[in-house]
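Key result, reporting period 2: structure in, sequence out.
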């Protein structure tokens, strides 16, 4: 029903290394997609009956992450980290058609595994890989990115790449899955 895109999103990351092996990362990633689509059948949603036809839909999946990560490989030009991420998700799915409106919202905690790497191609260029994800029980969450960035100077880097976010839940209360693909522009400042 939603997702014909493209849509612009902002994602804010802040990382700190506590020492040479241990670090923390915070991510704020608001995400909301609204569109008009066609329900091909009459649809019961959140206690309301929506007849087939054009319907406004909104899919919101705001996430706030706190990651602990441990550096297990730290060689010149290559770093690998592993850890865990606590994800607080603020989700809402809403359908609207004229005066008829229904939504299903939920705030919850999702624990995920974390894996990331940095590979220095040369003095200026670096490839980055980032993964947070876990599957099991009634749902799953996968957030994966691959980026290439360029050092402008000792503090500023600019880059780009690809990110995909996939996940959802299948419970007695809700069946909702989303799969989003991103072209990423990355701007970094390092102290």
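The corresponding designed sequence is given below.
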């Amino acid at each position: 029903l939603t997702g014909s895109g493209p849509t612009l999103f902002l994602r804010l990351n802040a990382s700190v290394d506590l020492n040479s092996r241990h670090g923390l990362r915070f991510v704020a990633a608001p995400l909301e997609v609204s569109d008009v689509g066609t329900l091909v059948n009459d649809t019961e949603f959140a206690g309301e009956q929506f007849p087939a036809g054009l319907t406004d839909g909104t899919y919101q999946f705001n996430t706030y992450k706190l990651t602990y990560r441990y550096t297990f490989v730290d060689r010149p030009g290559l770093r690998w980290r592993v850890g865990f991420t606590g994800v607080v998700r603020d989700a809402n799915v809403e359908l609207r058609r004229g005066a008829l409106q229904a939504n299903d919202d939920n705030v919850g905690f999702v624990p995920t595994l974390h894996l990331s790497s940095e590979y220095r191609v040369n003095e200026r260029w670096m490839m980055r890989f980032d993964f947070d994800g876990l599957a099991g029980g009634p749902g799953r969450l996968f957030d994966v990115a691959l980026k290439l960035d360029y050092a402008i100077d000792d503090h500023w880097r600019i880059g780009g790449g690809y990110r995909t976010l996939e996940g959802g839940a299948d419970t007695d209360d809700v069946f909702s899955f989303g799969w989003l693909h991103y072209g990423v522009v990355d701007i970094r400042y390092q102290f």
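DSSP finds no helices and twelve strands in the chain. The radius of gyration is 19 Å. This case is discussed further under Risks and Mitigation.
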